[in-house]
């Protein structure tokens, strides 16, 4: 239950400090000396319900834990910030602005569940700004898929075509938008959605699992936005490939709808580089039948027949803990037996 005057001023002179836990205190604002902690990598202010602002984050901060800071209205990134931030901000209901966020090249993870004000203030340009090298995951309280997603469908599976005559070095990756909700409210947290993708044309399939923490069980509809960069595909794309995607999520969650956006470098315009209309896919179980990962990481790739006519059913849900991504292929192989 510390207030501003109770924090020792000497703490802001600890040039080598890497982790600072100020959770559960009653201060209204963090002192400006926080920005002097040049090596601070993790700042935790969870449950500081009176905290209203964080004037400026340290320049090398990697992770900010600010869950249940219900009075927090504003925080700010410094102009010289160069990291890929991880921001845990669920239930910061009053948060309206993150200064400098849209100036960042990329983000790694942002949890802003129940942060309706902040989510509504986010610009599409920020959500579209993705990388060909780095993955990102954003959780936010939105019920609709933006119009700039060319492929949209109700349910948890979708098919789409890569543009014809695609130039591979212009392709940045694909962005997936998932709207989900639980059938009931629970005081529990479950693993986030994972994605299975099949390239029917090249007979390659792979699984993508975000490296993030659990998501809260709530009936309120939320969205999960992930960007899968080109570097994670593991093989070149020539254009015209038919792709299937299926989203797997733990009970009691349900996927309401999903969408795909193919991201290209800004100088690509018109022609065959654009996206065609969405193609509905039935038989989500058949899509999971062709999963044959061979090496463990966030994505597993292997050549396969991509034969959706197989009748041996694959379980609809896979239990994969966030710290077990290295065992993804082992888990999938076990479930196939």
UniProtKB/TrEMBL annotation:
Give yes or no: UniProt keyword Repeat: yes
Q: Cite the InterPro entries for this sequence.
A: C-JID, Leu-rich_rpt, LRR_dom_sf
- Segments of this protein annotated with the region Disordered: 313-337
Give start-end positions of Basic and acidic residues composition bias. 318-337
Instruction: Cite the C-JID domain residue spans from the record.
Output: 140-267
Q: Which Pfam families match?
A: C-JID (PF20160)
Asked if the Swiss-Prot or TrEMBL record annotates the protein with the keyword Repeat, the reply is yes
Per the UniProt record, which residue ranges are transmembrane?
none
What are the record keywords, sorted?
Answer: Leucine-rich repeat, Repeat
The protein in question is named C-JID domain-containing protein
